[in-house]
Amino acid sequence: MRKNIMLVDDSIDIIYTVKNGLEDISDTYNVEAVKSGEECLQTLANKNKLPDLILLDIMMPNMSGWEVYDRIKENKKWSDIPIVFLTARTDKVAENAGRFLGQDYIEKPFEINDLKNRIDRLLR
Question: What confidence score (pLDDT) does residue 1 get?
Fold first, then answer.
């Protein structure tokens, strides 16, 4: 059974890389991409079936990944969705916060096979 992953990132290049990369190397994942925190929350609110995992960028305009994380965790219907931070932030403060709050913290650039393996471990 395919697992649904929501990717929240404002970079078209990252969306293309993650969606095509994961879907090309494995028939296990279906990746739905949204380009902002607002679009993420709106999509979650309108979905009957929630994603199995969210890949969440931190540095986005208007609403940061930290704000999106807080809004997701405040909602009882969404709070159990595992969140993996996928970000260009490489400072220790962000990394420590991301590892504490999320299920994983992955820095850009990344290898698609490493990303897949880490997602595989989380969704077992």
Answer: 85
- The CATH number given to whatever domain includes residue 115 is 3.40.50.2300
Instruction: Give the global pTM.
Output: 0.95
With H, G, I as helix, E, B as strand and everything else as coil, classify residue 35. Answer: coil
Q: How many domains does the chain have?
A: 1
> Could you give the dihedral angle defined by the CA atoms of residues 5, 85, 69 and 57, in that order, rounded to the nearest 10 degrees?
-80
CA dihedral sign of residues 70, 73, 38, 105 = positive
Parent domain of 66: 3-123
Residues of the chain with pLDDT under 70: none
64-100: string of b/e by CB count within 10 Å (b at 16+)?
ebbebbebbeeeeebeebbbbbbbebeeeebeebbee
Determine the angle formed by the axes of helices 65-74 and 37-46, rounding to 10 degrees. Answer: 20
Q: Determine the Cα–Cα distance for residues 33 and 12; give it in Å rounded to an integer.
A: 10
Q: Give the C-alpha separation, 93 to 38, whole Å.
A: 25
For residue 20, give the DSSP letter.
H
